[in-house]
Amino acid sequence: MVDKLDARGAQWLMEHDFGETEWVVEGLLPLGLSMIVSPPKFGKSFLMLNLGLHVVAGEPFWELPTTKSPVLYLALEDTFKRVGNRLELITEQTDNDFEIAVRSSNIGGGLIEQLEGYMAEHPLTRLVMLDTLQIVRNGIYDNAYSADYSDLRVLKEFADGHSVALMVVHHTRKARDPDDVFANISGTNGLMGACDTVFVLDKDRRSDRYATLSVTGRDVEFQELRLLFRDGEWEFVERLSDEDFDDPEVPGCIQAVADFMERRQESWTGTASELLGLLDCGAVRSSVLGRHLGTYREYLTGRGIKCVRERTGAARTIRLELLEHDANDGPDGKSDISTMPSDDGWGCVNKPVIAALPS
Fold first, then answer.
1. CATH of the domain at 63
2. What is the pTM of this model?
3. Could you please report the per-residue DSSP string of 278-334?
4. pLDDT single digits (tens) 60-111
5. Which domain holds residue 256?
6. Around Cβ 56, how many Cβ atoms within 10 Å?
7. 313 lies in some domain
8. Residue closest to 45 by CA, chosen among 155, 161, 130
9. Domain annotation covers residue 183
């Protein structure tokens, strides 16, 4: 018997509170399926270790907050010895909740069952890294697009089903597109289409120590990060894209909310319709204002305003609060991320557990 379609009303979808986006690295790596791509021997494996060490310790990664959780890294192109040597190069101590495997089955041949079993034993894990995609491909499809999309779709269903960030490592094609780094991903558009977030690590020349990490996704604003590879670590240098939401790019109703709160100088609570009645922003529907309040939360935070949306009975309320700026805030109330202090210590005690997944 065919299951009945689970269809929901558009109005219900607009009014239903699905919660905020959940992040492993705030603003950069959400839960779901991600793919990081670069040419071979570009330092992606070091990047995976850097990321895993910060997440398992709950330390900021490139000055962005992380959600502390256990981590699983499938270093399928490596040996235990090589992974151990890399760890010794970049850290003295880490945590037993960072686990590494160097063998697994492939997609369609037991990989998902292995991952399901692992999650049953380690349910708090929120980051799984698979290095590399090609090793676990099943190769049973005749059509290249179908093969790409189907393999990634299986991994996405696992990531969504267990609320984890599953990051897959992949390679770029030999021919380089100078205009679109995402067009350099080896394979068809099915790979990028199946992923929630895509990262491309690129350099002008292989010998360069500096690289650009381009990021795009369903829940992530397009951004570019300038990174420096030194002593086995990818260090954050600067953010190349404009992430501060310059005023001309922000909807007028959001700028009006910020202006209203700056004049008011005290908290406000009410519905979107009630808030619109206090603003001078033209013919804007309450549902549009509510959606913009979620999208431009970072802009409001930069203006010193915290926005919280809550459901009270049948109504959704909005609470606007004024924030106190710290010493790092610039004259416009926006944080200068390049001057924010970082903590270099791991604060943890044990070496990582290195174990192979059962075959």
1. 3.40.50.300
2. 0.68
3. T----S--HHHHHHHHHHTHHHHHHTTEEEEEEEETTEEEEEEEEPPP-TTB-TTS-
4. 999 999 999 999 999 999 999 999 999 999 998 888 899 999 999 999 899 9
5. 247-333
6. 26
7. yes
8. 130
9. yes
